[in-house]
């Protein structure tokens, strides 16, 4: 069975996330391991870590983590850059304590300094975080194409991967971001293009989100599955492209009165052939 889930809350304790994920039919989930709206990286209690690992084992749910909102590892500003690098390193270490194998990060914004410099900053931040002994893989997420963004073009991801060889680095592809950046993922021809630039084996997770805005809009606006411009048949085509079903698939779709979380996960499962 494909690993399908969604981003879930850790309110009340990191270990509580498994209960929430199980209730809505997940066998995969994404969480924040530190406060998503703060630079602070709190110490993870050994008891919490033990409970988290036990719950992962008993439920069989595969957990991945996402970086907080504030860090920008593509920034050249000395203060923001230093804090962003420490956040990436701290979150990766926290994931290691919890036994989480994959940590998703945005490549960020070059803040008007040019994409070449931004990519160089990303490479430096990733290399600083991937210390010997770290067992957590950092996954670079593609972007929708907002102003000064890094990662809206697939070759941006490849450039970082090509520079950081022999280390735990991979990719998380977001379907809404791909579509907004001009990649028509409803077409296998477009997917062939993507996977001619990056190796499918380097993709470990998929953020499955429909797009509120049209193809090439360069606007990051998530919609529920089948309620946006990608559509049900577009996702059916995407999910049945060779290799996609082997990835960790996580929904980041908005809360909706039209479709519940469990119903949406069941909908996605029904799209696999």
> Uncertain segments of ≥5 residues (pLDDT<50)?
none
The number of domains: 1
- As a percent range, the share of helical residues equals 25-40%
Which fold name fills CATH's third level, the topology? TIM Barrel
CATH level-1 class: Alpha Beta
Report the C-alpha radius of gyration, rounded: 18 Å
Strand content: 15-25%
N to C succession of SSEs: EHEHEHEHEHEHHEEEHEH
State the separation between the terminal residues, measured CA to CA.
11 Å
Strand order of the largest sheet: 1-2-3-4-5-6-7-10
Query: Structural class given helices, strands, pairing?
Result: alpha/beta
Based on Cα principal axes, name the global outline.
Answer: globular
Oligomer: single chain
- The average pLDDT score comes to 97
Q: How many strands? A: 10
What is the count of helical runs?
Answer: 9
Fourth-tier CATH superfamily name: Divalent-metal-dependent TIM barrel enzymes
| Corresponding CATH architecture | Alpha-Beta Barrel
Largest sheet: 8 strands, parallel, barrel
């Amino acid at each position: 069975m494909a690993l399908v889930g969604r981003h879930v809350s850790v309110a009340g304790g990191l270990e509580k996330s498994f209960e929430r994920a199980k209730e809505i039919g997940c066998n995969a989930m994404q969480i924040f391991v530190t406060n998503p709206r703060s630079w602070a990286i709190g110490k993870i209690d050994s008891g919490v870590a033990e409970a988290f690992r036990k719950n992962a084992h008993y439920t069989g749910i595969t957990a991945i983590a996402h970086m907080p909102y504030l860090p920008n590892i593509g920034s050249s500003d000395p203060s923001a850059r230093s804090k962003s690098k420490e956040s990436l390193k701290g979150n990766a270490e926290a994931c290691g304590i919890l036994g989480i194998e994959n940590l998703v990060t945005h490549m960020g914004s070059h803040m008007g300094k040019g994409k070449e410099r931004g990519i160089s900053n990303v490479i430096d931040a990733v290399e600083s975080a991937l210390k010997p002994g770290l067992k957590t893989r950092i996954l670079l997420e593609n972007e929708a194409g907002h102003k000064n963004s890094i990662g809206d073009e697939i070759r941006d991801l490849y450039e970082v991967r090509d520079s950081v060889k022999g280390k735990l680095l991979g990719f998380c592809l977001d379907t809404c971001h791909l579509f907004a950046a001009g990649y028509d993922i409803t077409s296998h021809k477009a997917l062939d293009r993507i996977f001619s630039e990056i190796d499918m084996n380097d993709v470990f997770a998929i953020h499955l989100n429909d797009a509120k805005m049209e193809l090439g809009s360069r606007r990051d606006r998530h919609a529920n599955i089948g309620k946006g411009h990608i559509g049900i048949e577009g996702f059916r085509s995407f999910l049945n492209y060779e290799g996609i079903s082997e990835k960790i698939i996580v929904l980041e779709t908005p809360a909706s009165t039209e479709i519940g979380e469990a119903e949406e996960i069941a909908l996605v499962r029904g799209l696999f052939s």
